[in-house]
Amino acid sequence: MFRIQPLVSVLLCCFTFWFHISFGYLITCSGIVPMRYRNDKVSITDFGGVGDGKTLNTKAFREAIYRIQHLRRRGGTLLYVPPGVYLTESFNLTSHMTLYLARGAVIKATQDTWTWPLVAPLPSYGRGRERPGGRYMSFIHGDGLRDVVITGENGTIDGQGGIWWNMWRQGNLQFTRPNLVEFMNSRGIIISNVIFKNSPFWNIHPVYCSNVVIRYVTILAPTDSPNTDGIDPDSSSNVCIEDSFISTGDDLVAVKSGWDEYGIAYGRPSSHITIRRVTGSSPFAGIAVGSETSGGVEHVFAENIVIYNSGIGVNIKTNIGRGGFIKNITVSQVFMENVRTGIKITGDTGDHPDNQFNPNALPYVKGVTLKNIWGVKVQKAGSIQGLKNAPFTNICLSKINLHGMTGPRSPPWKCSDVSGAAIEVSPSPCAQLSSPQQSGSCANHF
Ligand SMILES: *[C@@H]1O[C@H](CO)[C@@H](O)[C@H](O)[C@H]1NC(C)=O
Ligand SMILES: *[C@@H]1O[C@H](CO)[C@@H](O)[C@H](O)[C@H]1NC(C)=O
To answer: How far apart are CA 180 and CA 200, in angstroms?
Structure first.
């Protein structure tokens, strides 16, 4: 029995691999949200849209969407954006619509930041993410929607974020910068085949959403652009992200759920988040959970991830006062190259929205499996720092090989207040994870 099992799994693995190659079969997000065909189509030019890069198209977008919302054609309506550069202020989407960007279509955010509308802070944050009070509405916004698609032939949504980044750098931002695309309280969202460029802040932010698919997207922002996270599923469930390239100034994908007393009170977790076949580079983390995790984060599954020229490969981060939980996180099949730290799990990063947090609200971290991770030019293998009064448990490292900058080995792991197991990990992991009787911690994850 004990001999046959590995053989079976090897055969199964080879078979699956062969099957992928021969039939082009891949596990995908399909099925989470059905793709919609829209019979009814309108073009932004029907509403006076001009793609000359100078004309302000705010009225055209708002009128087109108003028409889609109120005519309510059976099966929804597709709004076509032909090739050209369409400058506009922010606008709201509506349910049962597809925003379709043709090849060469660019929807470009105005640089007149003083015209930008404000919206209320998110209840799970209690204030703007970077400034107290309200926050600027996302460039493309959806609240309380269902059945919305943003797609096309790889047209571009350009946030022209430079002006916002400079306001942040100069410290004269009045409110929290706008996200590029945000959906709130929505379900049945597909974002595919679009390029996102130069977001003022986070790029794609589904918050209080369910059933969201993001695939075949390219997200670009300069390495030094502040807080330009790629995709941040936040207090959302059934989110599937795949086949995308992301290179920005902050985390590529960061799963969140509000912070401190606000997130704890709101209590909405992020769960069932799938991330696969994502490649990219970030001065911070490739795949991140946190640090805002007060509503809890569970059932995150990331695989086939390539991270290069980055700060951290996989980063799980929370805080004293944050409460919530992080559990059942699996990250596997990761390749990293030229990364400062391979894996970092931190119990107290130390940032808070205000001083009202409860220092006894400790996060609960249990069941993190990291397996089949290969790295070259990794300066530091990793660190896992749990909390003294809330140690991290069931942390499983399996088949991890992180090569250093010069020799075959990077400096050793650093751990505290953590228990779990490590199997075939090089450089050899910290003592807390390496005792053989602990290897049971890995068992329930295979
Ligand atoms: C867009 O949505 C926001 C938030 O739901 C709302 O405050 C705002 O009035 C809407 N703007 C327009 C032009 O409909
Ligand atoms: C758009 O980009 C995606 C992802 O890079 C690519 O797979 C797809 O073939 C492109 N589609 C078109 C129509 O060019």
So the answer is: 7
The secondary structure element, H or E, covering residue 228 is none
Q: Which of 158, 232, 250, 251 is catalytic?
A: 250
Residues in the chain: 446
Q: How many angstroms does the Cα of residue 154 sit away from the middle of ligand 2?
A: 6
The per-residue pLDDT for range 232-279, each reduced to its tens digit, is 999 999 999 999 999 999 999 999 999 999 999 999 999 999 999 999
- Tell me if 41-195 shares its fold with 251-446: yes
Does residue 293 register a pLDDT over 80?
A: yes
State whether residue 76 is helix, strand or coil: coil
Q: Is 250 considered catalytic here? A: yes
Domain 41-195 has CATH 3.40.50.10860: no
Q: pLDDT band at residue 444, thresholds of 50, 70 and 90?
A: low
Alpha-carbon distance of 232 to 259, in angstroms, equals 14
Element holding 431 (H helix, E strand): helix 431-434
Which residue from 63, 146, 149 is spatially nearest to 98, judged by alpha carbons?
A: 149
Q: Are 386 and 407 in contact (CB under 8 A)?
A: no
One-letter amino acid for residue 274 of the chain:
T
CA-to-CA distance for 212 and 232, rounded, in angstroms? 12
Distances (CA, A) of 196 to 61, 68, 168, 199: 18, 24, 20, 7
Residue 19's pLDDT is: 43
Q: How far is the CA of 92 from the centre of ligand 1 (A)?
A: 6
Element (H, E) at 306: strand 297-317
What is the pTM for the complete model shown?
0.93
Kindly list the domain boundaries of the chain, sorted by start residue. 41-195, 251-446
Distance of alpha carbon 209 from alpha carbon 185, whole angstroms = 5
Closest to 50 measured CA to CA, from 91, 93, 81: 81
Q: Smallest Cα–Cα separation from 120: which of 187, 232, 208, 189?
A: 208
Architecture of the CATH domain 251-446: 3 Solenoid (2.160)
Residue 436 has φ and ψ, to the nearest 5°, of: -60, -30
Q: Which residue has its alpha carbon closest to ligand 1 atom 3?
A: 119
Nearest CA to ligand 2 atom 13: 153
Residues 169/124, Cβ–Cβ less than 8 Å: no
For residue 442, the model assigns a pLDDT of: 75
Q: Are 421 and 394 in contact (CB under 8 A)?
A: no
User: What backbone phi and psi angles, to 5 degrees, belong to 440?
Assistant: -55, -30
Atom of ligand 1 nearest to the CA of 143: 5
